């Protein structure tokens, strides 16, 4: 019998519920493009925005499917290396109208040295706040724009036309949408490490249950089991996978836990969380962030010559077990593109404590739901 336990609740999973009911930020933002399948036109929408009313509610005019979702992915454009994608990609013809997903203030409109292509960045306050100070803020980034019609410091409403889509420098016509979430201890931060899964925010209607498979469980060294799990689903909002390991007495086996390792990182090798992974392992030049105190990334010597510090997940050498091995979790490239029907993510958990009589794998979804699967003899699990 599977049961939610306090361990799961105690994990520092980032959830959208923390920003419910904002005066400035709607907790049900709309999709950024014209014509999401399940939506009516947003408030503020007008005919002259260039998004005909006929598009709304039609399956042939939709923001879906995405061509890439948030998290580790293979990059066809880079010879199938993999990177960490910090947004979602919505393929769309150049010149498609873009709407603000929620009320906010424009911080960037056009070119910016930190971004490869023109973008619009909108800042959204947290619920009940009118400043980022001490609490942080949310930001939405709309990237690879063809043109923009708003300017810096302009206040925009949810659903307001802000610009038009363009093409990335790789030649792919799409909108890259990001949500960044600055932490309270670094409240003006809006770095890549602050990016969270956008499907925490956007309405997402797929309610199907992902399939979870235990591909390999090696218990030949009983106190150091190695567990490979694959999640396969048509959904694109997988945000994390957590293992619970039980011994012969069906007691939870104590794992290294949510404590700092020798390098100052909070390491718990039984979980992989997209948002937390990005937050911990993306470089940031800030005295508030551990990378700076180390001087360099602790894995730096193991990176190949083509390593990109803001990617920090580079499989130039796919047989090198150190590459992509973080928190004791080896992340295989997620396989997905617009022409496949399933998203597939394989993780190998390397630094576990055993023995393992029974293992439960929980999959977290941005919609707030979970799915689970068991391995071994879990019959006596209470
Ligand atoms: Zn993208």
Structure report:
- This protein has 382 residues and is mainly beta.
- It folds into two domains: 6-14 and 206-376, no CATH class; 17-200, Glucose Permease (Domain IIA).
- The chain has helices at 6-10, 274-281, 290-294; strands at 71-75, 81-85, 88-91, 97-99, 104-110, 119-124, 138-143, 145-148, 155-156, 161-167, 173-181, 195-196, 211-218, 226-233, 238-246, 259-260, 266-267, 271-273, 325-326, 329-331, 343-349, 358-365, 370-376.
- The strands form five sheets. Strands 3, 4, 5, 6, 7, 8, 9, 10, 11 and 12 form a ten-stranded antiparallel β-sheet that branches. The protein has a five-stranded antiparallel β-sheet with strand order 13-14-21-20-19, with no helix packed on it.
- A hairpin with a 7-residue loop joins strand 13 (211-218) and strand 14 (226-233).
- Bound molecules: zinc ion.
Specify the CATH architecture of the largest domain: Distorted Sandwich
Order of helices and strands: HEEEEEEEEEEEEEEEEEEHHEEEEE
Looking at CATH, the homologous superfamily of the largest domain is Glucose Permease (Domain IIA)
Ligands and ions found = zinc ion
In this structure, how is the largest beta sheet organized? 10 strands, antiparallel
Mean pLDDT: 78
CATH class of the largest domain: Mainly Beta
Content of β-strand:
25-35%
Helix content: under 10%
Approximate shape: elongated
- Runs in which pLDDT lies below 50 for 5 or more consecutive residues are 1-22
At the third CATH level, what is the topology name of the largest domain? Answer: Glucose Permease (Domain IIA)
The radius of gyration is: 21 Å
How far apart the termini lie comes to: 7 Å
Query: What is the SS-derived class?
Result: mainly beta
Q: What's the number of helices?
A: 3
> How many E-type strands?
23
List the domain count as a whole number: 2
